[in-house]
Automatic annotation (TrEMBL):
Transmembrane segments: none annotated. This is M90 family metallopeptidase. It comes from the Bacteria. It comes from Uliginosibacterium silvisoli. InterPro entries: MetalloPept_cat_dom_sf, MtfA_fam, MtfA_N.
Amino acid sequence: MPMIIITSVALLIVLWLASEPLLVELRRRRIRREPFPAEWREILRARVPYFRVLPADLQLQLKKHMQVFLAEKTFIGCAGLEVTMEMRVTVAAQACLLLLNRRAGYFRNLRQILIYPGAFIVDRVQTDGNGVLQDQRQVLAGESWTQGQVILSWDDTLDGAAVIDDGRNVVIHEFAHQLDQEKGHANGAPYLSHRSRYKRWAQVLNTEFEKLQAQADSGEPSLFSYYGATNPAEFFAVTSEVFFERPQEMAAHYPELYRELSEFYRVNPLSWS
């Protein structure tokens, strides 16, 4: 009898685990069927001009993704900041750009978005070139953690949303990191659609990463922020910003890199303007 009970319990656990993804998708479908709130639409008009350049089908898709995102993610105000619906919608609209036309996992590891009023200070211990530990204080506009948090400066979030063609967007940057971190760590090689794509991805991104490093060392101007020369993970996040905000220049000067990012994100921002 005990063996029968153990077997039955094990079977129930297996059935529950198998049904959980289905239940999640059913819940998300129900959320996506709900009307898009008028208040959110007004916030999009006021704060996210990028929304207006999207084709109608992608506008609808973005709104549906936002509904799920806002239903599932927790927002926390830091340093006395009270999180408003304006903040939630503005962040969600930019983050969900990265989910268009993809099998949306809604940043599956992400649980919380922490928002500071402005740039925030982080104290870290880092090793210098001689192996000596040093305390370093950094002023940041955003950060993405593998533990399931994204931290954002609200001032920088607003600036990134307001100017859609400067190649600088802290939300796109940090949520690109979240995609990269889905495998547990960020190294500039997020999950791709097929194993065969990794070789080409590595060739193209490594070539352009090394080129940016050389430009940063020499002071030569670049379409990309020198911050992208820090490591491959930052390069992926920086080029993601430019891909969405300055696609014409990227496609003209970095066609292979643009092609790789277009295949990854499954959109072509060149066709939006």
